[in-house]
Every structure is written in C-alpha cells, then in structure tokens.
Specification:
Bound molecules: cytidine-5'-monophosphate
Order of helices and strands: EEEHEHHHEEEHHHEHHEEHEE
Structural class: alpha+beta
Largest sheet: 8 strands, mixed
Helix content: 25-40%
Oligomer: single chain
Length: 300
C-alpha cells in the first residue's frame, strides 16, 4: 500500500453525438463517438485515517466547485470504499484542474474516474477495469469512458463502450465560454426543440478515423445537442463560424457544451486557430490538445 498516488486523466470530446428516445428513467439513448484528449486534470490521493474524506481543487474553475458529498469525485471515493466494505480507509484528494467546469468535456466525470483509479491503488484493492467500469457507470454516463480513454463508440446511456481503431493523431483547439451549461438543461432544451431520430453514427466518420483522414473527419463531426446548446447560448454560433472562417477542418460544440471544438490540420494550425479565436469577445479562453490519449492512469 502507498501513502499517496497521483493519477492523470484526460478530457473528452464527442466526435459524433446522436440523441434518441428517453428510457423509463428519463435518460436519452445515445450513439456517440468519444475521443480522449490531452487537456487533462491531475489528482493527488493521500492516505488518511478511517472515514476521513477531504477534497480540494486548484486551477481552472476551482472556485466554482463544491467539495462536499455533492461532488462526483467525493462520491466516487465513498462509493469505492462502500463497494469493498472498507470502513478503515480515508483519503485526502487534491485536484489540479485544467478541464473547463460545466464545459461539455466531462471534467466532473474525469475527476470521478481518476479518483476510482487513485483510491483503488492507494488502498491496495486491485480492482479490475471491469469492476471500475461498473462503479463508474453508477456515478455518471461519461465516467466509464474516462477510465477507458482512446477513441470509442458509446451506446445506451453512453456507458456501453466499444473501442474504435483509429490512425494518427488529431490536433484540436477548444474555445471556452464565459459561462457553463448544465447538461440536464441542454437535454431538456433538446426535448423541447427536436424530434428524436435514430442514433446511428455516420459511416463517413468511422471511415475517416480508420484512415486517419482529418479533413474527412472534420466534415463528419456532428452533435444533436449543438442546436439546443446554441439556443441557450446564441454566441456559440458565432464562435463556431469564426473557427471555420479561420480554416478549421471542422467545428462542433463539445458534448452538451458550451465549449466549442475545432479540428486542426496540424499542431501549427491549431496554434493559428487559437490565435484567431482568442480575440473574439464571446470566447473566455482557448486551449489546445491532441488525441487520442489514454484514460485515467497512475503516473509513474
Ligand atoms: O449521467 P450524467 O450524470 O452525466 O447525466 C447528467 C444528466 O444528463 C442526466 O441527469 C440527464 O438529465 C442527462 N442525460 C440524459 N441521457 C443520457 C445521459 C445524460 O438525458 N444518456
């Protein structure tokens, strides 16, 4: 058993997000392609006395985050302890945030996934990836993918995952918004304005990923939550247009938004896009990242 464990976890962008009918619990059926990207958080988990659970955040959006049991990261630690029936454990968690808060990049789910991996190692539990996946799915729809990383198709609520073969590295520029969007609010807006269609992922997108064809991938990016996100934050339409005018291969709202994702042709191109987008008053900040990268993992 270690006294402390550090875990790195990526953010995600949805390359495709198709939204279908709701199930009995009000969750929507999804057809999505996730990609894990290098804009990530780092979690330090330090051993503490029995029942001593603490959480602190530094960095991007830290001031806005609760540190009690309403935070998914805290719930992840307690769920894990409960799952293995251990009342003799505790942990102090410190999260260095880079993933935007309420940004559609799964920041909260990423931290929860990182906590599952960190506490499993810290407490010497040796849980399998499958067990962690099952616990993750109880916490939120994006948590299992943040454990898995890479590029994957997600179906059902988004937790049934199948890894996808891809070629090459994709360079992204992200435009962050001045305020966040609540995922349930965006789904509610979707229900108001859309007739749920099928959740099929465009064949061209899968083919583009297999071939490592960035221009074809850019053309195939799609998100059924983009229109409802724009309805709630109309500035996003300008942000997306600006990125395309600046030469992005594709532009899409990430997940439930409001972060906008722009596919670049190269690392240098992602710098150029970032410079063009940073001057727009509707954009709070820009970030660059590449993908696919690994899911939550212990740092050596
Ligand atoms: O699973 P997660 O906690 O991330 O979901 C947040 C909210 O997003 C849910 O409470 C629900 O309103 C909406 N959601 C949905 N269908 C999904 C996933 C999420 O309606 N498949």
């Amino acid at each position: 058993m270690n006294n402390s464990v550090r875990v790195r976890v990526p953010a995600k962008v949805n390359l495709a997000l198709r939204v279908g009918q709701t199930d009995a619990q009000g969750f929507h059926e999804l057809g999505t392609v996730f990609q894990a990207v290098s804009l990530g958080d780092e979690i330090l988990a330090e051993d503490a006395g029995p029942g001593d659970f603490k959480l602190a955040f530094h960095g991007e959006g830290a001031a806005f985050l609760p540190v009690d049991d309403t935070n998914l990261a805290m719930r992840a630690a307690k769920l894990l302890a409960q799952h293995v029936g251990r009342t003799d454990v505790g942990v102090h968690l410190t999260v260095r945030k880079r993933i935007p808060v309420a940004g559609g990049m799964a920041g909260g789910s990423a931290d929860a996934a990182a906590v599952l991996v960190a506490c499993s190692a810290l407490w010497g539990l040796g849980l399998s990836r499958e067990e962690l996946h099952t616990l993750g799915a109880q916490l939120g729809s994006d948590v299992p993918f943040m454990l898995m990383g890479g590029t994957a198709i997600g179906t059902g609520r988004g937790v049934d995952l199948a890894p996808l073969m891809t070629s090459g590295t994709y360079h992204w520029t992200f435009a962050l918004s001045h305020s966040g969007l609540s995922t349930p609010a965006v789904f509610r807006e979707f229900d108001k304005m859309s007739q749920p269609d099928d959740t099929e992922i465009p064949h061209a997108l899968i083919e583009a990923l297999r071939a490592g064809d960035a221009p074809a991938l850019g053309a195939a990016l799609c998100n059924d939550l983009e229109a409802p996100a724009i309805a709630l934050q109309p500035t996003l339409a300008h942000t997306l247009r600006l990125g395309l005018e600046a030469g992005a291969l594709g532009a899409v709202v990430s997940g439930s938004g409001p972060t906008c994702a722009f596919l670049a042709g190269s690392e240098a191109h992602s710098h150029e896009l970032a410079e063009s987008l940073a001057v727009f008053s509707g954009v709070r900040a820009v970030r660059r990242a590449y993908g696919p990268v690994a899911g939550a993992q212990v740092m050596s």
